[in-house]
Design a protein that fits this description.
Layout lengths: L2 E2 L6 E5 L3 H14 L5 E6 L28 E5 L4 H13 L6 E3 L4 E2 L4 E2 L4 E2 L4 E2 L4 E2 L4 E2 L4 E2 L4 E2 L4 E2 L4 E2 L4 E2 L4 E2 L4 E2 L4 E2 L4 E2 L4 E2 L7 E4 L5 E4 L3
Parallel strand pairs: 2-3, 2-4, 5-8, 6-9, 7-10, 8-11, 9-12, 10-13, 11-14, 12-15, 13-16, 14-17, 15-18, 16-19, 17-20, 18-21, 20-22
Antiparallel strand pairs: 1-5, 22-23
C-alpha cells in the first residue's frame, strides 16, 4: 500500500483538481491494480466543483466542508507551499486523516521519516535518517540525502536534490534541478531557482539564483 498509516484505508480523496491533481490521480489509479485503495473523488474550492475532462469521478464538495467516510483519507495535490499549508490545516482542523503517500517506484530507507501530508512522487529517493516534515512534496526524480531535512510544506520540483545533512526550512520552493550542497541550510520561505546549487547557509525569505552570477536576494512580502 502506498500510504504510511496504522489504520485501514478503504478509499482516497484527492484535494485539488488542477494539474498536480491529475498527476496524483494517475499515480494512485495505477496503484489500484496492485491492490491499493480506490479513489472516491475530488474535493476542490473552485466554484462549480469542476472535475478535469476525461475523469469519471465526482466532486465531493469543498475542502473546508469535507467530512470523510470511515476509512477514507485525503491526499493534497497542490504544488504551492502556501496552498498546501492552508488546505492541510483546514483538513486537520476537521480531523481528516492525511497519511504520507509515496509512489511504489520511490526508494525509501527504512530509517527515513515521512510525516503526515507528505507526497513522494515516482522515482524519488529518500535516504537514511532523512526527514520529510508535514505536508512537504517531492516531485518526480528528487533526491534527499542521508540525514537531510525537508521543512513543513516545502516543495521540491522535478530532479531537485538535498545532499547529505542539508536542510531546508518550512514553505520553501526548489525549482527543477535545484541542489542544496552537503551540510548547507536555508531558512524558511526561501526560493531556489532552477538549476541553482546552494553552497552556503541562507537566512529566511531569500531567493537564491545562479542566473548570471550567484546571487542571494531578499523576497519582498
Amino acid at each position: 500500500m502506498p500510504f504510511i498509516s496504522e489504520d485501514p484505508i478503504f478509499s482516497v480523496v484527492i484535494a485539488g483538481a488542477g494539474g498536480f491533481g491529475l498527476e496524483i490521480f494517475d499515480y494512485i489509479n495505477e496503484e489500484i491494480k496492485n491492490g491499493g485503495p480506490a479513489i472516491a473523488g475530488f474535493i476542490d474550492d473552485t466554484p462549480g466543483g469542476k472535475i478535469p475532462e476525461g475523469i469519471d469521478l465526482p466532486c465531493l464538495g469543498t475542502i473546508g466542508d469535507f467530512k470523510p467516510e470511515p476509512g477514507q483519507i485525503v491526499i493534497v495535490a497542490l504544488g504551492s507551499a502556501k496552498g498546501r499549508r492552508i488546505v492541510l490545516e483546514k483538513l486537520w482542523a476537521n480531523q481528516v486523516k492525511t497519511p504520507a503517500y509515496y509512489h511504489s517506484s520511490a526508494v525509501l530507507s527504512p530509517a527515513a521519516k515521512l510525516n503526515r501530508g507528505v507526497v513522494v512522487c515516482p522515482f524519488s529517493i529518500v535516504n537514511r535518517n532523512a526527514i520529510l516534515d508535514k505536508g512537504s512534496v517531492l516531485n518526480v526524480h528528487c533526491s534527499v540525502g542521508h540525514g537531510a531535512f525537508v521543512g513543513a510544506y516545502s516543495v521540491l520540483s522535478p530532479y531537485a536534490a538535498l545532499n547529505g545533512d542539508a536542510k531546508i526550512g518550512s514553505a520553501c520552493f526548489l525549482g527543477t534541478r535545484a541542489t542544496i550542497y552537503p551540510r548547507v541550510s536555508i531558512g524558511d520561505d526561501c526560493i531556489v531557482d532552477t538549476n541553482t546549487g546552494v553552497r552556503s547557509n541562507t537566512e529566511n525569505k531569500k531567493m537564491i539564483t545562479s542566473r548570471g552570477d550567484y546571487k542571494v536576494l531578499n523576497i519582498r512580502v
